[in-house]
Amino acid sequence: MYEVEVKVKVPHAKMKEDLIKKGAVFSGTEKQSDTYFNSPLRDFSKTDEALRIRSVNGAGEMTYKGKKIDTVSKTRPEYNSPVNEDEMKEILAALGFFVSGAVNKTREIYLWEDFVVGFDTVEGLGEFIEVERNIGEETGPKEIQNEIDRVFDFLSGYGITRKESITMSYLEMVAAAKTK
């Protein structure tokens, strides 16, 4: 599957209020704790990949994210599977993987049309929104670009431009904030 995703740093209140007026449906609030791992075989920070175990309200999920396919969004292949967090961390450690960082956030999720809009409050970073849509692996480059354009068209209704898109991961942003 490909995850078409655009992230921007914006205050939540006005956009959330407007989205609700347009008919967005509140899907829930999640406490997400992400532990990121790096490989003994290649440095994911250099290959633009990510491997994490996420705890969502206490349930574990492992995610692998492949390389981004463009420079203005965070669109990339993504694979997810439920896991027992503690056991999977032990397995990864036994295989030589090591923790590269952690991110904690609260995400309020709204569904609008075929988009998932996450209002994220990230520990140490502030408020962001992520607009996402999952599409099949068989989708071609033109269709993927059309989906990216749809996300930016949606965001333009809030005065948000492509220039404001953040392609850094929260992990990269947390690490950068710690070095300041």
Short description:
The protein is of the alpha+beta class and 180 residues long. It contains five helices and eight strands.
Protein architecture, described:
It is a single chain. The chain is of the alpha+beta class and 180 residues long. Helix content is 27%, strand content 42%. It has helices at residues 13-21, 44-47, 85-94, 141-156, 170-178, and strands spanning 2-8, 25-38, 50-56, 59-65, 76-82, 98-112, 115-122, 126-135. The longest helix has 16 residues, at 141-156. The mean pLDDT is 95.
Shape descriptor reads: globular
State the strand order across the main sheet: 1-5-4-3-2-6-7-8
Radius of gyration: 16 Å
Structural class: alpha+beta
Q: Note the main sheet.
A: 8 strands, antiparallel, barrel
Low-confidence segments, given as residue ranges, are none
The DSSP helix count reads 5
Helix content: 25-40%
Mean pLDDT: 95
Quaternary organisation of the protein chains? single chain
Range of strand content: 35-45%
Protein traits:
alpha+beta; 5 helices; about 40% strand
